[in-house]
Specification:
mainly alpha; about 75% helix
């Protein structure tokens, strides 16, 4: 399994994230943030019975595996903190998007959440 993680990280670094890879800590932050965002997307997909839940679950797992591959770069508490912060922020956007009472704010939150999700999904090679 660790060989697969190494291959995934290698492909990610080679084909899509080279611009982000200036600093290992920066790459770790980006991947941890995406793992958190995909966790929020997954939970909302479950809540709304969205058939994309399986896709979000797979993408979240891929980000977590990549993050674990980068493990020597930062400490686990820092990585987990990044994931939790990103998950809570993204969940707040999704909450406003789906349950907000202000139509303009809900529309903005939905657009922003989709943009952030797409940004993360575009980092994965086959998404």
């Amino acid at each position: 399994m660790s060989r697969i993680k190494t291959l995934i990280a290698g492909f990610l670094l080679s084909f899509g994230v080279c611009a982000y890879a200036a600093e290992p800590d920066e790459l770790t932050e980006i991947i941890a943030t995406c793992a958190g965002r995909m966790s929020a997307e997954l939970e909302f997909a479950w809540l709304l019975s969205d058939p994309q839940a399986e896709i979000f679950e797979e993408q979240r797992l891929r980000f977590v595996e990549i993050l674990e591959t980068l493990a020597p770069v930062t400490n686990p508490e820092h990585r987990l903190g990044l994931r939790i912060d990103a998950k809570m922020a993204h969940a707040s956007l999704l909450t406003n998007a789906y349950f907000g009472t202000n139509a303009a704010r809900a529309a903005w939150a939905k657009r922003h959440a989709i943009t952030q999700r797409n940004h993360c999904q575009n980092m994965l090679l086959d998404s």
